[in-house]
């Protein structure tokens, strides 16, 4: 198993764990983003209201679709591991290998980080948009069961409803703003690389050494904090288009295009409409990214050690 495949596996598992831990924040943020009537409730009040109205399961409406989306986004869907995490790591490795001999920095430049992020994000967005469309529908719609109680649709019923309403093209609702949002991981990974470079350089100067240590010298807390900070920056910059994407995917508003959606939101709701639900989203994004960077690193190291041990055992058996 090559490093790209291990990165893909680690990214998928790490992403799934992170999403499961923070999903109620994703759910509440999506609902707030598509709601025309704004609520003054705090995050705690929104959680209590959801549990009161829908039970604990209401906080996890659409979790299954989200787990499929995040694991699929961060794990292997082509034989060669073409995923955000694997793509990014593979591109990063190739860029570093092409550097002149003697180069010691393990951090990408701004341009290199942008290129790696664009490659990873564009492919993933095109492939996984249907999953997030189903998730948005599940999170924001309700159906009445036989007992007359409102409940959230299942992934299969949401998929059937989307196909019935708009056909196969309905699964790619919001693809315009989704592709624009490819800049989110670009900003995230570029910011992460810059933060890593700054931390390593600062520590080298503080210790009085002339060489900068590699990323392997960073602790789990370093990855946790830097991952959270980089995602905070990316989400804060791109959030208005995330609102537009959520509304188009949920199909709760009839907008002709992303541009008309932005204009209509500004006209009817003001600038605050473009930032609806940003509180729980910022918290969720930061925690998810922080958990993912740490989990991905540890899972990669574990799987890598198991692969190396298996290879050594096989080599020893052949020599015997």
From TrEMBL:
Give the bilayer topology: Multi-pass membrane protein
PROSITE patterns from the UniProt entry: SOLCAR (PS50920)
GO cellular component labels: peroxisomal membrane
Gene Ontology MF terms in the entry: ADP transmembrane transporter activity; AMP transmembrane transporter activity; ATP transmembrane transporter activity; coenzyme A transmembrane transporter activity; FAD transmembrane transporter activity; FMN transmembrane transporter activity; NAD transmembrane transporter activity
The UniProt entry, under Gene3D superfamilies, shows:
Mitochondrial carrier domain
Going by the UniProt record, its keywords in alphabetical order are: Membrane, Peroxisome, Repeat, Transmembrane, Transmembrane helix, Transport
**Solcar repeats: from-to residues:** 2-87, 108-198, 222-302
Subcellular localization(s) per the UniProt record? Peroxisome membrane
Instruction: Give the record's family classification.
Output: Belongs to the mitochondrial carrier (TC 2.A.29) family.
The protein's name in its UniProt record: Peroxisomal membrane protein
**Species for this entry:** Trichosporon asahii var. asahii (strain CBS 8904) (Yeast)
